[in-house]
Amino acid sequence: MVPGAVEEVGSIDAGWPLGDTAGMQLDRIRVVPGVCEGRPTIRGLRIAVELLLKLLADGYSVDEIVQEYPELEREDVLQAARFGSWLAGQRTSAVA
Predict the structure, then answer these.
(1) CB burial class (10 A; 0-12, 13-18, 19+) of residue 44?
(2) From CA 96, how far away is CA 82, in angstroms rounded?
(3) From the first residue on, what is the mean pLDDT of each consecutive set of 10 residues in the chain (96 residues)?
(4) Three-state DSSP state, 11
(5) Strands of 29-31's sheet, edge to edge?
(6) Predicted pLDDT of residue 20
(7) Which of 7, 24, 60, 83 has the fewest Cβ atoms within 10 angstroms?
(8) Which residues share a beta bridge with 41?
(9) 5, exposed or middle or buried, with CB in 10 Å at 0-12, 13-18, 19+?
(10) 10 in helix, strand or coil?
């Protein structure tokens, strides 16, 4: 590995133990150490899934988001929404 390079550890869809994604395609969601503090991002870009979900929740349309962030594609934003819906459907446990 080249010094200073970021190794891609895996994607949500391929390799990370996130349970059953019910056949949802999440191949654009990546978790890369050192990028956005290890939070899920879009295609390893420094655009966190969290940001896209907040923009959608604030009423921005997919087209408005893509216009504001030209490095994104429509499918990137849609997969972020799919990931959010999948994550919200997972069981959670209280931590003591």
Answers:
(1) middle
(2) 30
(3) 40 44 79 87 92 98 98 96 89 80
(4) strand
(5) 10-11, 29-31, 41-42
(6) 52
(7) 7
(8) 30, 48
(9) exposed
(10) strand
- The pLDDT score that the predictor gives to residue 87 is 87
Q: What pLDDT, on a 0 to 100 scale, did the predictor assign at position 55?
A: 98
Residues contacting residue 46 through CB under 8 Å, at least 6 positions apart: 35, 36
Instruction: Supply the pLDDT for residue 22.
Output: 61
DSSP 8-class letter at 15: B
pLDDT at 80: 95
Q: What structural domains and CATH numbers belong to the chain? A: 10-86 (1.10.10.10)
Closest by alpha carbon to 77, among 45, 53, 44?
A: 53
- How far is it, in rounded angstroms, from Cα 58 to Cα 3? 40
